[in-house]
Amino acid sequence: MAYDIEWLNSTGFFTIKLGLERMEELLERMGRPQDSLRFVHVAGSNGKGSVCSLTETALRKMGYKTGFYSSPHLIKLTERFRVNGTPAGDECFIRSAESVRKHVEAMRKNNNSPSYFEITTAIALEIFRSENVDFVIWETGLGGRLDATNVVIPELSVITGISLEHTAYLGTTLSAVAGEKAGIIKPGVPVICGPMPEEARSVIAQKAADLNAPFVQVPAYTGAYQINREQFCQKITVDGQQFLLSLPGAYQRNNASTAFYGLKYLASKYDFDFSTALSGFGETRWSARFQYIPEKNLLIDGAHNPEGMQALASALQDYFPGERFHFLAGCFADKNAEEVVAAFAPLAEDVSFIAFDGSGREICSPAQLGGLLEKYAPGISWREADLAESLQKLTAESGITVLCGSLHMCGEALELLGLPG
Asked: Under CATH, what is the fold of the domain 291-416?
């Protein structure tokens, strides 16, 4: 993409600035693009990207023109701004970014510069306004209450699983984290609440009640399912309806259930055929989420926190019962590395720890991760390895290799393999 984005990078790729004041000023300067759009706003610790992707595909199946804002991107910035399932074209992105930039520069002169994420959120709104989309699937970045995306009045709010994350910003208890996520709930706007611990669920239910927002609790999936191990998909049944789910893994059954009830509400409100829309769940693709690359016998998954890694471990046992795996793993230093390693250690044949490029953000050293592996799986061999070299050596005959621990590292791997994000 022939475009100089140094001005955007200069705002700090990993800089976190919570609060809505800058975002609200920026959007006022832009003419409030959010007011002409319809949103499904999705928050959660894990699963929000999958729920967004399922919902977007289902709406597109009905002929709606969709916008989908997500983060982070895996390879290319424009992945964050999808129109009808495809990253925004370079021309559209450049035009929208330049439109936003002039307002950002004016705010900078007043020492009130928006953050990187606030700017990309504004660019997303400008793209979706210019493309005149019918629905925007709107994924939060961090938390919810003070997240830059929380400047819209959605048609529907969805909150997926809750776990301890970003504790320096969101709090150190599940109830505190849930309170931040519940900040996306708006008066009278229905809320779909995915399966989660009662400590978190009760906080979200109370917030919905306080705001007279209709509340739907999605139960944890306990029904029958059929796994197709060759095609990496599954059939599940929710509320008496069986459907194909193209996203493999036990954790995706909960995500699909959450998306199911959200879609059901939208079908009722906008009078479209629910069954036809639901068939879109069998066509959804979401990179780096239990993504299998057969020619390398490689499975890539962006699990990067304890809950996500536990879900990955469960999915691996579902699809490959009794197997042990070669792991390529890395972890950012601000994650709970000990619990991440503890979750996958019992399934490891051996582990290669990667000192991946953190783009300026601190990563855990291979030695540190190796020490944790020795604690939880003594006797399992490990080594420090180069990502590019490790991927190059893999073949279909290598035995199953699982790359996990960081979405950032997953994106680096997909780029090295020449695959899209």
From this structure: Protein-Tyrosine Phosphatase; Chain A (3.90.190)
Half-sphere exposure for 204 (CA within 13 Å, toward CB) = 34
Which SS3 state, helix, strand or coil, does residue 148 take? coil
Distance from C-alpha of 150 to C-alpha of 131, rounded to nearest angstrom:
21
Q: How confident is the model at residue 3 (pLDDT cuts 50, 70, 90)?
A: low
Matching residue, tokens 């769940």: 281
- How far apart are alpha carbons 186 and 184 in whole angstroms? 6
315: enclosing H helix or E strand = helix 306-319
Domain ranges of the chain: 6-220, 291-416
Residue type, 410: C
Query: Helix or strand or coil: residue 378?
Result: coil
Q: Per residue in 228-266, pLDDT tens?
A: 988 889 999 999 999 999 999 888 999 999 999 999 999
Report whether 348 contacts 327 (CB < 8 A).
Answer: yes
Strand 225-228 relative to strand 233-238, pairing: antiparallel
Query: How many Cα atoms occupy the beta-carbon half-sphere of 49 within 13 Å?
Result: 23
For 16-57, what is each residue's pLDDT tens digit?
A: 777 899 999 999 999 999 999 999 999 998 899 999 999 999
CB 136 within 8 Å of CB 70: no
Exposure b/e, 355-369, CB count within 10 A at least 16 = b: bbebeeeebbebeeb
* Torsional sign, CA 289, 221, 54, 244: positive
Could you tell me the pTM of the whole model?
Answer: 0.91
**To the nearest whole number, what is the mean pLDDT of the chain?**
93
Q: Which three-class secondary structure state does DSSP give residue 350? A: strand
Chosen CATH of 6-220 out of 2.130.10.10, 1.20.1070.10, 3.40.630.30, 3.40.1190.10: 3.40.1190.10
Strands 298-300 and 401-404: parallel
